[in-house]
Amino acid sequence: MNKRNYNVFFNTHTVSGIVISVALYVIFFAGAFALFKEEIAVWEENTPQHYVERAAIDYDFLLNDIAQEYELPGRDIRFNLGHTNLDKIYVLLNQSKDTVNISEEDRGYEYFSIDIHNGLKKTYEENYSLGEFLYRLHFFHQIPYVGLYLSGFISLFFLFAIVTGVIVHWKKIVSNFYHFNPKVTLKRIWTDAHTALGVIGLPFQFIYAITGTYFGLSILVLLPANFLYNNNQDKLMQDLRPERVAAEWVAPTADPMPSVNEFVTANANTWDRFHPQYVYLKNYGGVNAEYQLIGELDDSEKYLNAGSITLNTQSGKTKIDRDPHVADYLGDIQLSLGRLHFANFGPLWVRVVYFILALITCFVIISGVLIWIEARNKKSMSLNQRLYTAKVGHIYMGICLSLFPITALFFLVIKLLPAHLMDQRMTLLYVGFFGLWLLASIFYRYKRDNYFTNKSTLLLGSILGFCIPLANGLVSGQWLWKTFGTQYEICLVDALWLGLATVGLFAYCKIKPNIKAQSAFSKHPIDYKNRKALLQKEATSEKPLNPIDINFNESIEEDMKAKIALLWLFLAIGFIIHHVYGLATVYTSESLYIESTHGETPMAWHVYRILFEGLALVFALLSLQFNKKGFWTTALVFAIVLGLYNTYHFVAALLHELGNLSEIVVLAWMVAVSVILTLSLSQMRKSL
């Protein structure tokens, strides 16, 4: 690889990595705990589990109990049994389709948990747990409307960073892996650690980049699928999610509904070692009602092992919808992506390995940020540049590293929370967790000492981590040695925190003051108290450029080109999202078919796509290669045109489509990208 291409890949890897690093760290850190969402919920409630087989649950009792509070005729009812035999399952009641006999206020959508022994029901808010909170944080669900898509795009750029990182480090991956030396310069330590641990976690990270992109941007899959199915959305959903297709309501039945217990018991043993996971009751109370049992074979039998059976209550006949021993392309692809992402296959140790690899990835992200900080704090750089680098580093490190002690603290808070406040956990977590996290991030940002940030967060997180199993034992009497082998969920959470706290304390003890002395910020300290005077002095002084400055300016130019290319890419993605955001309506039975069309894409659409997405992608590519002022002038003019168009579209949406929040959010994002792109292009053009 020639030097120019190497610099392009290196700067692209650096810029893309720095842009997504904080969000990516949050995704992996929260995702590590999200692997044990159900175990954390059990640990919080201190309720011993009886591990009842799913086929042995008294579904008729649960239905009768639910019917005391809700009108069930005409509904599609789903029992989510989970992957483990816990005492609590989740029930989804879709809106009743019986509009004649059921009043409108009694037909609404309901979702709640229910105890299989006593029928105790809790709403989603009442049942909200720290595990659920971290699971939602994993894909930014707390950010309305765009959180999931944001996580999808971050995964996409993570994939981009992985590929460019492998290309950049390809020749020295093996040597850096085997020649890690903690006694060399700090930048070299972080570089070697970044490479070595990146290689260890590379397959895992690649899997998560692919599957994360799929789940975060799965709505984009529907765009080509919609054309393939000739706008037949019913057929599309029948193939993609057959169990969720709602059958048409005919009429209520006068006959009693068949026993769900008998249906499950009779069909749970259709295949050896088959474990039910969902029970669907479609058009319950109707003449065309159906019962459906969905589950999986034991993991030791087959990796892609989903199967389902349906009972037609009118005819009394059952049919096999999906045989787990027969390959199903669409179903198996979706199942494999889900299993690889959520690690819900194999024994417990698989999730533990995922947990460890997720935390290793967090370290890879942090080491990448530290490499960037160390590399850009040189004496040859201007004070303004060094201040900017230091500020970004302090912000990034404060946000990322404070997440460890804050998470440990709220495990303690939830465990010590009085029983009468347990139903308020959702409010407590939203206000308390985010509030304290923000305060900690601000504190570490203005402390301006990454060494202190690292040491203090490790120490606080470790101390709090050791207190978690201790608090659990004191509050509930569920000590680690008592739960081992009997209540594995409670034992697992305590063991995970003991392990995390031990590793954190070990790392704290290994970080010595002499390591701080190796930092570029210690060798070339910044006088923050006198920074205004120093900046003014630097601005008034003139000195000839030396070769180091020239090389640095070339590096800045490459960084700017990579940044502009990413902004063009962001803009193209924004146009694509704007085109397809309405595809979400296929889930609410809204047609996307345009009347008077004949299945062919109008030529005007092709022209529109070429002028917007097409040219944006072309400029993204050319920005990495061209260095002529004429090119940057052309790019600037086109960026201004797009910016004016996006601003007009945004204002029009505010005036005429105020209720369409998703479109307004996307258009606001595109306006912001257009402004930054225009400023960057103007700066680039002036520098030539």
UniProtKB/TrEMBL annotation:
TM region positions: 12-36, 146-170, 206-229, 352-373, 394-414, 426-446, 458-481, 487-509, 565-587, 607-624, 631-652, 664-682
PANTHER family documented for this protein: IRON-REGULATED INNER MEMBRANE PROTEIN, IRON-REGULATED INNER MEMBRANE PROTEIN-RELATED
Organism, as annotated: Sediminicola luteus
InterPro entries, alphabetized: PepSY-ass_TM (IPR005625)
Keywords from the named record: Membrane, Transmembrane, Transmembrane helix
Identification of the protein by name: Peptidase
